[in-house]
Amino acid sequence: MADCIFCQIIDGKIPSQKVYEDADVLAFNDIHAQAPVHVLVIPKKHIASAQELGEKDGALLGKIFTVIKRVAEEKGLAEKGYRIVNNCGEDGGQTVHHIHFHLLGGRQLTWPPG
C-alpha cells in the first residue's frame, strides 16, 4: 500500500531504528515511546487490522509472537514481564491501518495504560 507508513518503513522509504528483521517480520522502536522499551512488531505483508486475519495467517501470527518473545528476551523484559497491545479499528484506537503489535516494558505498567 503506497500510502501506508508501515509499508514505507518496510520498503526503506522512511527510516526506522530496527530491532529485528527477517523475510516476514520487522520490529522497530516506536518514535512515540510510552515505556522505556516500546517496540512495534509488524508483518511485512500488508494486513489492515486483526479483523482481516484468517486461518491462512496462522503461521505468520505464530512467527510474530515468536519475534515478540525474542525481542522481549533481548531487551531484558522476560523476567519481570511486559505488555503486548494490538488496537483494532477506529473505536479500538488503531491509527495506522497495518496490523501491528506494541511490545511495552521496562517499568511497572499500569491499567488503564498511560
From TrEMBL:
PROSITE patterns: HIT_1, HIT_2. The active site is at residue 100. InterPro entries: Histidine_triad_CS (IPR019808), Histidine_triad_HIT (IPR001310), HIT-like (IPR011146), HIT-like_sf (IPR036265). It comes from the Bacteria. Signal peptide: none annotated. Residues 5-114 form the HIT domain. GO terms for molecular function: catalytic activity. This is Histidine triad (HIT) family protein. CDD domains: PKCI_related. A motif (Histidine triad motif) lies at residues 98-102. Pfam families: HIT.
